[in-house]
Amino acid sequence: MNKSIDYRSDTLTQPTAEMRECMAQATVGDDVYGEDPSVNQLEQTAAQLLGKQAGLFVSSGTQGNLLAMLGHCQRGDEYISGDVYHVYLSEARGASVLGGIASTVLATGDQFEVPVESLRQAIKPDNIHYPISRLLCLENTVHGRVQSQSHLQALCDLAHDAGLLTHLDGARLMNAAIAEGISATEISAPFDSISLCLSKGLGAPVGSVLCGTNEFIDKARRNRKLLGGGTRQAGVLAACGLYALEHNIERLADDHSNAERLAKGLASLQVMPIEQHTNMVFISPPAEHVAPMCEHLRGSGISMTVDTPTMRMVTHLDISSDDIGKTIGIFKDYFTSL
Ligand SMILES: Cc1ncc(COP(=O)(O)O)c(C=O)c1O
User: Fold this and answer.
1) pTM surpassing 0.70?
2) Residue 137, pLDDT above cutoff 70
């Protein structure tokens, strides 16, 4: 039986033996009392990495984004975001459901960026007919695409000049930092708050860190408790996050080069359009091949996300360079057997 190679997401990684060892050895306390040394260390480390005053360990990227919106906005305020961003599309509209916060989403461009002019037009004047434009929520990377730093800066400058606050969904911020060769602090600088996921490319089993000012994080800590997210000896999980920040950032370059090699290998078959951005490869096979090709791949132990007409393959910690060679071979087998 072939080892399965699972490209569906970089969230699928198994904690390594070293990470499990850190978990076993973690010094813990009651985090609701603020007494878990491992959680405190993770929060400080992440805040320092992102150049912010404070951090808060949260259960997920969704919780980090929700706490940011609840922290920055009041009922009747709105956040402005991109139409394909996770915060709007895939977080069950938590800000509206739980916070009475309205959303306005803007059509994004080729690189999934929010156009500056659209943002300018979307920010509402103070008028009783409109919600109060309070927050700009951006994302980096977006479907693997690194957002231009000068563009992020221009959007945040415009938002700040108009009195808005800014939040970055940095689920894969470290992929952007590694791909661009710039620091996480630089990427985070234009933003008032950032949510960084530990459980995606960084390979931890659970958690994100929300970072911002001391005042903002105090408010987020209160709201996290309100949402039932205050946890006790969470240091066993924070230890994995710390391990991930210490050991798994630089190695994202391996995921990117694996994705590039996979894209090049598949492009050499000359049968379908291929796009690759950081650790994500998107393939668009001719419609008649989708079902039989997926069956062939599944039979050979390869999984990916199929969202016809495009399929997404994400490289991560549990996909080796050898796996990439095998995968290209399995695709070749399919097309040469026709
Ligand atoms: C860009 C982005 N933001 C936020 C999230 C939410 O993270 P979580 O699944 O930890 O809630 C995801 C999850 O895939 C994501 O891709």
Assistant:
1) yes
2) yes
